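Lecture notes, unit on protein representations.

Consider one protein chain, 337 amino acids long.
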Amino acid sequence: MSEAPERPTRKPTRRDVARLAGVSDAVVSYALNGGAPVAPDTRRRVLAAVAELGYRPNQAARALRSGSARTLVLAVPDRDDPVFANPFFAEYAAAIESAARERGYALYSTATSFEPDGLRARFEEFAARMVDGVLVLSSGAADRSAIDPVGLPWVDLNAPGARDGVASVGTDLRAGAERATEHLLDHGRTRVAFVGQLDDREPRHSGWRAACASRGVPPGRVYDGGYTRDGGYVSGLRIADEDDRPDAVFAASDRTAVGVLRAFHERGVRVPEDVALVAFDGSWEAEYTWPPLTTVRQPIEAMADAAVARVLDPAGERAHAEFDAELVLRASCGPHR
């Protein structure tokens, strides 16, 4: 005779947790979701009961009751060069997730077009999913007239400056570029080239140019390296093959500088003896090149914390938070004085 099949076990409820922990249903909710202070010993009893019973809150029901999924979205540009292939943005995203988690929110990332109609459609999708706010890595490109009517709080990341009515976070890129260039000039270099964007309105480009002008030194050549390793590599080959090559290079990103370093290595150009090099961003890979890169580090953790705090405070001021960058000295610029 075959055994009768086991009856399915009833899923534990919040009331079961409360009974085992010796507290009320409301205290279980406060301990798990916030909303009111709970004594540390009480919270520990609640969490122990949750673990013993295997209790799992119904997140969908909770979101419907509260109108909040306790979820943030990080929207990044959908492009051929994936954003997270850049170590700087990968580190930034990790810092944002940590800041969100500390406040009890989950973070999800998605790639999207920043064309106005497409971005608005994504915001409407986020609103339908009861997302609490969106962090938009648009570098100032997001059109507020397209997405403000949706009513979701949002913050623009990597913003180069203030825009009316937009909450944003960014680094003082121009000042950081000036400091990097001045450091090369302080090393006695007199022909400092720039590898980055050709547009002289871009803050790192304009900061490099301003630093040269303030010291009475003619700016060196500009090489179209963008923010990619490939762009830096091609630019580095051009520099290495020139008879009157510059004696220093300011690269607009760590990735660009990595490409420059490879090109110099292949052509036998010594760094820093022949050409000194300073980069921008301060990502982890800058420390592990050879020679290690002197770089201008953006304060990722502080920016991430400010961005999450702003998106969770929709009644707060819609303004730009600008952060200073730090020059991190390593071997690529030469001996430090």
